[in-house]
Each structure stands twice: as C-alpha cells, then as structure tokens.
Amino acid sequence: MPRKRSTYTAEFELSAVKMILDQKRSVAEAARRLGVSENRLHAWKKAVATDGANAFPGHGNPTPAEGELRRLRAENARLRAERDLLERFQVIRSDSGVISALKNRRCMLGEPLRIT
Q1: CA distance 6 to 12
Q2: SS3 of 95, please?
Q3: pLDDT of residue 65
Q4: Domain residues for 15?
Q5: Which residues fall in a coiled-coil region (predicted)?
Q6: Which residues contact 42 (CB under 8 A, 6 or more apart)?
Q7: Is residue 45 part of a domain?
Q8: Residue with more model confidence, 77 or 51
Q9: CB contact burial 61-75 (16+ within 10 A = b; e otherwise)
Q10: Which DSSP letter does residue 5 get?
C-alpha cells in the first residue's frame, strides 16, 4: 500500500530552514529531528535562499511572478482569439472590388464565403 504524500505548512518549512541556518544544525540532524528527508530540507533551504520569506506561498497562492505569467498567458490567448476572428472576417478582394466579409451573414455562421 503506497504511503500518503506528506504536506507541510509554510511555517513548518520556514522553521526547519531556520533550524539549519540559525541554530547551526546540519541538514542530516535537522531531518532526523523533524522526520523529513534530507533532500526535502535541501530543497526548502534553496527555496528560502532564492525567494526569502515568499518561498512557500501555499496552494492556490501563486508568487507574483507566477501570477504575472498566468495573466500574460490569458492575455495572449485572448489576443490570439481576437486575431483569429479578425483574420476570419478580413476584407476579401475580388474582381469587382473590395467586399467586406462582415456583410455576408453566411461567413459569420461558419459557412465559406462565396463571391459571385
């Protein structure tokens, strides 16, 4: 039977890193005392070194960089949809002159535009 995946609070993770840094304990000793793996403590220590107190935002609370990335991806998707719509209804040139695809109701319903 597989073991249940452990989750830790941000406070626990920060206190574990502080135990290593402030109390000058080795990672192995802190891991034994806390009951977590050494690899996990090294990962937490690295996260605190790079992001400081914002290293563990929690589930559903993205870091500012992740929030900005999510916002930019949504904007990118919206702009692509607008571009595709504009390409679909672009002005079509024919022998008799310029005909706007917006005037043709069939084009808006998804049927191909037929110029006669």
Answers
A1: 12
A2: coil
A3: 81
A4: 10-61
A5: none
A6: 27
A7: yes
A8: 77
A9: eeeeeeeeeeeeeee
A10: P
The answer to whether residue 95 sits within a structural domain is: no
DSSP 6: P
Rounded Cα–Cα distance for residues 75 and 15 (Å): 38
CA angle (55, 61, 64) in 5-degree steps: 65
* Cβ atoms 76, 69 nearer than 8 A: no
How many domains is the chain built from?
A: 1
| 95 has pLDDT over 50 | no
Instruction: Name, in order, each residue with C-beta under 8 angstroms of 70's C-beta and a sequence gap of 6 or more.
Output: 62
**Structure tokens that stand for 38 in this block:** 């050494």
Q: What local confidence, expressed as pLDDT, does residue 78 receive?
A: 96
Would you call 14 exposed, middle or buried from its count of C-beta atoms within 10 A (0-12, 13-18, 19+)?
middle
Task: Kindly give, in sequence order, each residue whose CB lies less than 8 Å from that of residue 91, ignoring residues fewer than 6 positions away.
Answer: 98, 99, 100, 101
Q: Write the Ramachandran bin of 9: left for phi over 0, alpha for psi from -120 to 50, otherwise beta.
A: beta
Residue 93 burial class via C-beta count within 10 angstroms: exposed 0-12, middle 13-18, buried 19 and up: exposed
Residue 49 included in any domain:
yes
